[in-house]
Amino acid sequence: MELTSITPDVAGLRALGHPTRLKMLGMLRSEGPATATTLATRLGINTGQTSYHLRQLAQHGFIVDERERGDGRDRWWKAAHQSTRTAPEPADPADREAFDAYIRAVAMIYAQNIQDAVREGPLLPKAWREASTFSDYHVRVTAKHAEALTTRMHELFMELREDADDDPDAADFVFQFQAFPRPGHLGGEEA
C-alpha cells in the first residue's frame, strides 16, 4: 500500500496545534473510522467538543466522511491521509508560532505514547517486551550528516510498512523517531 500524506498550510498547522485534534487524527489513522461518540468515549471528553474538533480537522482536509458507514444518525469519519509532513519552517514569526504549536502538540502525544508503553510493558508477552527498547544515542555529527541519517531512517521505516501486512503473528509496533541537537549545546542561535 502506498503511503499518502498531507503537507498542511499554516492554517492547517494551527488546527493541528491542538493536542486533542492531533490525537483524534492519530486514532482515526491507526484504529480506523469512528463516530464523534466513539472518539469522545475513548478520549474522555464530551461529544460536542469532539464534533467541533472533527469539523476543524475536516475543514483543513485531514479527515473525510466515511460514506459507507452510518445510518443517517451517526456520522462516521476517517483519516484522509496516513501521514502528515511539514514544509520547511516558515520565516514569518506569526506562521512560525503555528509551526511551533504543532511541534509541541506532536511532542506531547509522543511523550504520552511512551508513558503508556512503559505502563503496559509488564503486561506484554515476553517476546514483545524483548523486542521493545527505550534507547537514545548521543553522537557528534554535522547538520548535513544528521539530515542524511534522518532521511535514511525515514526510508527504512517506509520499507517496513509492508513487510508484515499478512503475517498473523504481526502486531502494530510503534517506532517513535526523534532526532535533534542535544538541548543546551548549540546556544539557540539562529542558523
Describe the structure.
This is Helix-turn-helix transcriptional regulator. Residues 11-93 form the HTH arsR-type domain. One of its GO terms (molecular function) is DNA-binding transcription factor activity. InterPro entries: ArsR-like_HTH, HTH_ArsR_DNA-bd_dom, WH-like_DNA-bd_sf, WH_DNA-bd_sf. The protein has 191 residues and is mainly α. It has 2 domains: 5-84, Orthogonal Bundle (Arc Repressor Mutant, subunit A); 117-165 and 173-179, no CATH class. Helices cover 49% and strands 7% of the residues. It has 7 helices and 5 strands, in the order E-H-H-E-H-H-E-E-E-H-H-H. It has helices at residues 10-16, 19-31, 36-43, 47-59, 93-120, 126-131, 143-160; strands spanning 5-6, 34-35, 63-65, 76-79, 83-84. A 3-stranded antiparallel sheet has the order 2-4-3. Strands 1-5 form a two-stranded parallel sheet. The protein is globular and about 55 Å long.
Note the main attributes of this structure:
191 residues; mainly alpha; Arc Repressor Mutant, subunit A; 2 domains; three-stranded antiparallel sheet; two-stranded parallel sheet; 7 helices; ArsR-like_HTH; DNA-binding transcription factor activity; HTH_ArsR_DNA-bd_dom; WH_DNA-bd_sf; Helix-turn-helix transcriptional regulator
